[in-house]
């Protein structure tokens, strides 16, 4: 696809990005990928319709509205000059961090476990937005880093802080799934930015060692809990109920599935959280292997597109940004699918564009906006010094 | 294109490619897992999914009714208005309970039970809030239902015994299942299912229970039913008709309610039991919802044993009512004839033992008929010894003593019909003359149940046919032609004469309590049995009045009777524990009951005017009034 677009790009080559009109930019958007986004969302909406027993209430209708709002956000972000986003990376990061701290303080003032801010028209989960903000700020950091700076250990200090602060705040909520997405997303950027292999190697060894140390100091009942978390089927009626039922639903779909709104496990409520984190199971039950592999394929088209575009982006910021978005997208679907299929522990990660939830939908659409923004502005060269230097 | 060749960019492209490769690998893992779950193990998971979704629900059958010989209800299924709460369907269980209690008053104890169930039971199972509601309350709940989510009014059935206490021991009761009751019937697993625990409810359980139906239903994860897939209806239990006449049953029960007593009334030709009552009784309806501890304990410790069915499970010395058996055995053996006489001096010596007649001053010279009517003990001491126990044993067996009839009433005992071999086997010593003398007056080893005594008197007065007692109207076993007992007719005639004279000869022991109307006059035999040996000291002091002794030390009063004396039709046995004299206590009871029974007989009733409201015989009361008037004058 990128190759198809390439000749068009050559035309604009050399022209100032500012000179590119809104309509030119609009035509630069890869409409095939937009179609894929629509397809995935469409699948999601029909699944929400199905789990409601064949009704747009209470989920499908709301989700459609969110998608339309998200669509606006996506196009807006896509069309705004990428330099603006480079410029706004730190302010956005700090804003998100403040929201996270507010949520954290609220949560500890005896208001119970709070993950969201009530903005009136929607409940915003700052932790979701943080995934995007973190990638923006890390991309900016490495964009502005001196040549060869990524080879110095000292230049790791700041990005590690940028990752660790939100990660700790989100872990305190507690939201292990989002924490993992933030940490792994951040590490992926570090890797893409060229931090040397041995650093990761040492990191892995060190975390394994720390984990073992911690493990041996845990009381046995807590060990039991951790073991159940890692292998829920130890406790099939308690913690493992969800995953056992999910696997039954998933497997019973077979190749062709039981048919739309015919999934017994989801329709009869054996499947918990069927409209949010376990919605992929509903797809697998009702549409079988064809449905589940098909959706995975659609996601991989988007991720492949992001990866492919990254090869041809002229500025480092855009390159890291689009890679970060692609990887975050992938982490979402890998953790979610792996979790509902019983490969990974259940940590609470939604399936982007499909799971019911406002913040997740918005995050995914914002992410897509940045993917398109990078793609549109891929020929812009941005000096190391800063956005408008 | 030149920028791609820059060293730094190449480096970053390589990193991106590595990431891409990693993602490809992980995606392959996802795909492999999908294939493994959906294709390799698809079938297995499909089975598991079906196991999840399909559930079999049992449909409880309606328990068979028990009715009397005229189709009147004895045990029925009464409509019961109940209210249940399914916690799972409530927004706030506690609030819902509060709203319900505004309509139905609940005690604190009930509330505690309900809250306990809320906590301990799975939340989709109903918790019973109240049962046995009035229609008004039930209607009110139904009206308010829209605002009471999770509240389920239910019309169920509950076993109801309209005859309550009158029928208690016979019919028994139903109650919840205990562990030992499990017999493989899936019905027993239904929560709240009740089975017969005593009486006919227990022994006829198989007939009454019916067969479970089932419904194959689709359920959701919390077990709530979504739709019915298929259904097989239940089969109600059988209707059972008893030979009982509930009117007689109720009359008898009322007549002896203040005593610790047992009465059996029987049709002498068919063996049909018209009434079988044991007092004191309990209310079988109390057991339905689980009897309270207090009530149960009161029943259990009562020395008059309300839980014991004395008619079949109480064993008593027959006393003088056994004398007919001895007489028949002696006549058959030829050791006495109609004219054989004894001289009663008030006591009789056997070896070094002295046996007393109840009449201290003696009866003088008496023949068989006289010794029956006056109940002379000495005559029967002598006769029994002459006859020998084994011949008495044989006759007693013929007349139905010492055996079980298996008439479906639980707890039936066989009593003791002693013989030489019995004593050897059970007591371990050989039979003595004194034992025979004691047996001659129905004391000593002989033990009988009131049911056996009723069968005995029936066989004596029906011409010597071995009828069997019958409680179920269509009981093939007991509906067979009764066998001849081969007792010579003139022997039976003598016995009948003796029993006639007990009531209708001025010297008879129960002459005072006779039925004066010749058309419906009765015959019978009284019996008074010691429950405790009277000591020599007591004997010397003279007869201590019955009422001066503690209840437990008083004699049992017995009476066996039949009527009408000319053409016998009905027989009965009466036992009053520690009732004192057989004549003074048991025979008036027997008279009233026989009279009432005959008032129910279309052929005999014209002679009896019974005021069913006052439960009294009008002729008698009118005569008494007349007497009072005379006295007043």
Q: Concise description?
A:
The complex is a heterodimer of chains A (389) and B (633). Chain A has 389 residues and is an all-alpha fold. Chain A has helices at residues 2-12, 22-28, 31-51, 60-79, 82-108, 126-144, 157-171, 176-193, 197-217, 220-230, 241-252, 264-267, 279-311, 316-340, 358-376; strands at residues 117-118, 123-124.
Describe what this molecule looks like in 3D.
The complex is a heterodimer of chains A (389) and B (633). With 389 residues, chain A is mainly α. Chain A has one domain (2-94, 126-194, 233-376). Helices cover 68% and strands 1% of the residues of chain A. Chain A has 15 helices and two strands. Chain A has helices at 2-12, 22-28, 31-51, 60-79, 82-108, 126-144, 157-171, 176-193, 197-217, 220-230, 241-252, 264-267, 279-311, 316-340, 358-376; strands spanning 117-118, 123-124. Chain A has a two-stranded antiparallel sheet. In chain A, strand 1 (117-118) and strand 2 (123-124) form a beta hairpin. The two termini of chain A are 32 Å apart. Residues 1-17 of chain A have low confidence and may be disordered. Chain B has two domains: 57-241, Penicillin-binding protein 2a (Domain 2) (Alpha-Beta Complex); 246-295 and 304-629, DD-peptidase/beta-lactamase superfamily (Beta-lactamase, 3-Layer(aba) Sandwich), CATH 3.40.710.10. In chain B, the strands form seven sheets. In chain B, strands 2, 3, 4, 5 and 10 form a five-stranded mixed sheet that branches. In chain B, strands 12-11-19-18-17 form a five-stranded antiparallel sheet. In chain B, strands 1-8-9 form a three-stranded antiparallel sheet. The longest helix of chain B is centred in the first third of the chain and has 34 residues, at 7-40. Chain B has 22 helices and 21 strands. Chain B is α+β, with helices and mostly antiparallel strands. Helices cover 37% and strands 18% of the residues of chain B. Chain B is elongated, with a radius of gyration of 36 Å. Classes of the chains: A mainly alpha (389), B alpha+beta (633). Chains A and B meet through helix 8, helix 11, helix 13 and helix 14 of A and helix 1 and helix 2 of B.
């Amino acid at each position: 696809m990128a190759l198809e677009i390439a000749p068009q790009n050559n035309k604009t080559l050399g022209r100032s990005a500012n000179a590119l009109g809104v309509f030119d930019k609009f035509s630069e958007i890869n409409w095939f990928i937009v179609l894929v986004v629509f397809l995935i969302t469409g699948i999601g909406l029909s699944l929400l319709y199905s789990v409601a027993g064949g009704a747009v209430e209470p989920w499908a209708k709301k989700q459609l509205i969110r998608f339309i709002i998200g669509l606006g956000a996506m196009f807006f972000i896509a069309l705004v000059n990428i330099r603006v986003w480079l410029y706004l990376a730190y302010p956005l990061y700090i804003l998100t961090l403040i929201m996270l701290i507010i949520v954290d303080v609220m949560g500890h003032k005896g208001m119970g476990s709070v993950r969201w801010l009530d903005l009136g028209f929607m409940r915003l989960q700052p932790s979701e937005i943080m995934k995007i903000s973190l990638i923006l700020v890390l991309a900016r950091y490495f964009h502005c880093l001196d040549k060869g700076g990524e080879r110095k250990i000292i230049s790791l200090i700041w990005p590690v802080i940028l990752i660790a602060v939100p990660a700790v705040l989100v872990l305190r909520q507690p939201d292990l799934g989002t924490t993992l997405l933030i940490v792994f997303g951040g590490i992926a950027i570090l890797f893409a930015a060229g931090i040397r292999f041995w650093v990761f190697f040492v990191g892995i060894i060190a975390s394994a060692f720390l984990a073992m140390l911690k493990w041996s100091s845990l009381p046995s009942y807590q060990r039991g809990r951790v073991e159940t978390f890692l292998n829920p089927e130890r406790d099939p009626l308690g913690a493992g109920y969800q995953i056992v039922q999910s696997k039954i639903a998933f497997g019973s779909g077979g190749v062709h599935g039981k048919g739309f709104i015919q999934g017994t496990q989801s329709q009869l409520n054996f499947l918990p959280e069927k409209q949010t984190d376990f919605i992929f199971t509903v797809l697998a039950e009702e549409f079988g292997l064809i449905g589940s592999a098909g959706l995975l394929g659609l996601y991989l088209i988007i991720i492949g597109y992001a990866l492919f575009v990254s090869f041809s982006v002229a500025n480092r910021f855009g390159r890291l940004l689009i890679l970060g978005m692609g990887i975050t997208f992938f982490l979402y679907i890998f953790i979610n699918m792996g979790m509902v299929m019983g490969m990974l522990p259940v940590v609470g990660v939604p399936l982007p564009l499909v799971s019911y939830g406002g913040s997740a939908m918005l995050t995914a659409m914002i992410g897509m906006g940045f993917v398109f923004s990078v793609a549109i502005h891929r020929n812009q060269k941005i000096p190391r010094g800063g956005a408008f230097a | 294109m030149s920028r791609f060749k820059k060293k730094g960019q190449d480096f970053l492209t390589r990193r991106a490619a590595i990431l891409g490769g990693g993602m490809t690998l992980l995606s392959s893992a996802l795909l492999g897992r999908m294939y493994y779950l959906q294709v390799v193990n698809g079938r297995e998971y499909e089975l598991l999914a079906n196991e999840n979704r399909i559930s079999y629900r049992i449909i409880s059958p309606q328990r068979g009714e028990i009715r009397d010989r005229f189709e009147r209800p004895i045990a029925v299924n009464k409509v019961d208005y109940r209210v249940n709460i399914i916690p799972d369907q409530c927004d706030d269980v506690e609030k819902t309970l509060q709203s319900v209690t505004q309509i139905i008053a609940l005690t604190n104890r009930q509330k505690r039970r309900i809250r306990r169930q809320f906590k301990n039971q799975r939340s989709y199972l109903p918790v019973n809030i109240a049962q046995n509601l009035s229609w008004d309350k039930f209607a009110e709940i139904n009206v308010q239902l829209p605002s009471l989510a999770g509240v389920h009014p239910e019309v169920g059935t509950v076993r109801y015994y309209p005859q309550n206490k009158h029928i208690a021991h016979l019919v028994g009761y139903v109650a919840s299942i205990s562990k030992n009751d499990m017999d493989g019937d899936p019905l027993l697993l239904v929560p709240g299912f009740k089975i017969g625990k005593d009486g006919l409810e227990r022994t006829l359980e198989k007939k009454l229970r019916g067969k479970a139906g089932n419904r194959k239903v689709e359920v959701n994860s919390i077990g709530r039913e979504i739709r019915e897939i298929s259904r097989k209806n239940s089969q109600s239990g059988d209707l059972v008709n008893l030979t009982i006449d509930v009117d007689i049953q109720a009359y008898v029960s009322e007549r002896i309610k203040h005593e610790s007593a047992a009465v059996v009334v029987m049709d002498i030709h068919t063996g049909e039991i018209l009434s079988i009552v044991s007092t004191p009784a309990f209310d079988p309806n109390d057991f339905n919802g689980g009897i309270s501890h207090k009530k149960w304990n009161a029943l259990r410790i009562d020395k008059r044993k309300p839980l014991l069915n004395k008619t079949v499970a109480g064993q008593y010395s027959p006393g003088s009512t056994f004398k007919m058996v001895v007489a028949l055995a002696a006549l058959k053996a030829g050791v006495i004839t109609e004219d054989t006489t004894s001289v009663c001096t008030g006591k009789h010596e056997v070896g070094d033992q002295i046996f007393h007649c109840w009449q201290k001053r003696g009866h003088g010279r008496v023949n068989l008929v006289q010794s029956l009517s006056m109940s002379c003990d000495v005559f029967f001491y002598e006769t029994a010894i002459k006859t020998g126990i084994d011949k008495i044993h044989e006759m007693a067996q013929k007349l139905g003593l010492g055996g079980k009839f298996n008439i479906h009433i639980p707890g039936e005992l066989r009593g003791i019909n002693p013989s030489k071999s019995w004593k050897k086997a059970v007591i371990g010593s050989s039979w003595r003359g004194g034992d025979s003398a004691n047996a001659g007056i129905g004391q000593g080893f002989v033990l009988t149940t009131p049911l056996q005594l009723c069968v005995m008197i029936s066989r004596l007065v029906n011409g010597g046919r071995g009828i069997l007692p019958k409680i179920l109207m269509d009981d093939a076993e007991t509906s067979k032609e009764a066998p001849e007992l081969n007792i010579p007719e003139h022997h039976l005639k003598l016995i009948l004469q003796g029993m006639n004279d007990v009531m209708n000869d001025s010297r008879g022991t129960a002459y005072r309590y006779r039925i004066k109307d010749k058309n419906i006059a009765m015959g019978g035999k009284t019996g008074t049995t010691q429950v405790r040996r009277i000591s020599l000291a007591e004997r010397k002091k003279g007869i201590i009045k019955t009422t001066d002794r503690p209840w437990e030390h008083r004699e049992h009063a017995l009476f066996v009777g039949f009527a009408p004396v000319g053409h016998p039709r009905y027989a009965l046995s009466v036992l009053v524990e520690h009732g004192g004299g057989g004549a003074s206590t048991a025979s008036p009871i027997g008279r009233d009951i026989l009279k009432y029974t005959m008032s129910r007989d279309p052929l005999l009733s014209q002679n009896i005017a019974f005021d069913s409201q006052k439960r009294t015989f009008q002729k008698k009361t009118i005569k008494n009034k007349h007497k009072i008037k005379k006295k007043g004058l």
